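Q: what does this look like with nicotinamide-adenine-dinucleotide bound?
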Amino acid sequence: SRIPRIVILGAGYGGVVTAIRLQKELNYNEADVTLVNKHDYHYITTHLHMPAAGTDDPKNARVNILKLIDEFKIDFIKATVQEIRPQEKKVILDEGTLSYDYLVIGLGGEPETFGIPGMLEHAMSIRSINSVNFIREHIEYQFAKYKREPHRKELLNFVVGGAGFTGIEFVGELANRIPELCKEFNVDPAEVNIYNVEAAPTILPGFDAELVDYARQLLEDKGVQFRIGVAIKECTEEGVVLASGEEIPSATVVWTGGIRGNRLIEEAGFETMRGRVKVDEYLRAPGHDDVFIIGDGSIFMNPEGRPYPPTAQIAMQQGAATASNLVASIRNSQLKPFKPSIKGTVASLGRGEAIGVVGKYKMRGFVAAMMKKIIDMRYLYIIGGIPLVLRKTKL
Ligand code: FAD
Ligand code: NAD
């Protein structure tokens, strides 16, 4: 009989781990595995706040996919997925079509703007290497422009919409970067404003209150101005309008107000909530035993019936579980329910500073920053071994 064909869409956290595990677990000629990704590199999304602010080189956040997989075992196709047709078991790429017996969707998420007028058109978001290069260059350009048009004070106003982990990690870096740019362009730091606007009554809603206070104090001391308990209700070319009526003039709005699943998933006809599919205990789309959806495109419920937050941590674990269940499917053996093991959360607040909860330990400051480095290095080790850790770690 024909060898089953597995197609993995997306080489993010979920997709890369699925591919690497499959190449380990499958026997010779047991399945044909194809990995499809828009770029020939994987990006380390959890580092993107740094190159976005300009505090680290974007090349530290990208890894050549062919360095991670064994081409004798996995076919890599650099292509953009255009459409998924689950009924026909086909995927349409920008160049060509792939058929599959088993599909893994690991296409990640997209910014969720909740229909806020102008947000999609005027704000930037931290989501890929290209998008963070754009943000970094845009910020530098505002300084250059201000030197030519010094009456335009709004060029030095930087607005970040949303103070979830992405927003907080980014303002932490931005607060480190601004003094460098002030020096470079000979601008008085007092002229520059970093605003972080959060709709919820607190920054980092839902996180440990003591650590939230620590983060807020630290970031305020670094110059970040928070607007808390007030939503952005509009974004224009001139800046943002808040629900309170306050207008913040700015040429730079970075939106970190939330993410949704990749639109290809809902376009494929799966039932979604904010673009995500509520998957079964084996991470399969309901009614489609041949389609696994992992990472930011899926919703997996915790025992209390609430969705786990979409994180790299969970996407990786789902990748490993999916690889095992694909092998089991092919061998006609019993699939194993996915059991996530959440180790904790550590978020950076800029150079040498972080907050985190790991197991029952709360940490802050330098210790937390070291923990964040260890977590990042562990990930590099999992996907690329010691050589990758050494190549990509900024010490
Ligand atoms: P992704 O990693 O987003 O990968 C999706 C892949 O699909 C990409 O390679 C993309 O190029 C490809 N793709 C997309 N569309 C197409 C298409 N049409 N055709 C072909 N390929 C396509 N989580 C944590 O657990 N810890 C952290 O410390 C952390 N820090 C973060 C910091 C920042 C700044 C951000 C933005 C997020 C952070 N997260 C963190 C969240 C985490 O990055 C995501 O949950 C995770 O990346 C989701 O993984 P994924 O596999 O679903 O998708
Ligand atoms: P998020 O959804 O977690 O946070 C978005 C924030 O924006 C929320 O606090 C929300 O109240 C706010 N918001 C929404 N609409 C708004 C409006 N109109 N005006 C002002 N504020 C508004 O999104 P995220 O921060 O991008 O995080 C996405 C996922 O990635 C989460 O699961 C997060 O845990 C994970 N992540 C983890 C880390 C880490 O572990 N270090 C870092 C970044 C992201």
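The chain has a mean pLDDT of 96. The pocket of flavin-adenine dinucleotide (ligand 1) is lined by residues 10-15, 36-39, 42, 45-46, 48-49, 80-81, 106-108, 126, 166, 169, 262, 264, 295-296, 310-313, 315 (CB under 6 Å).
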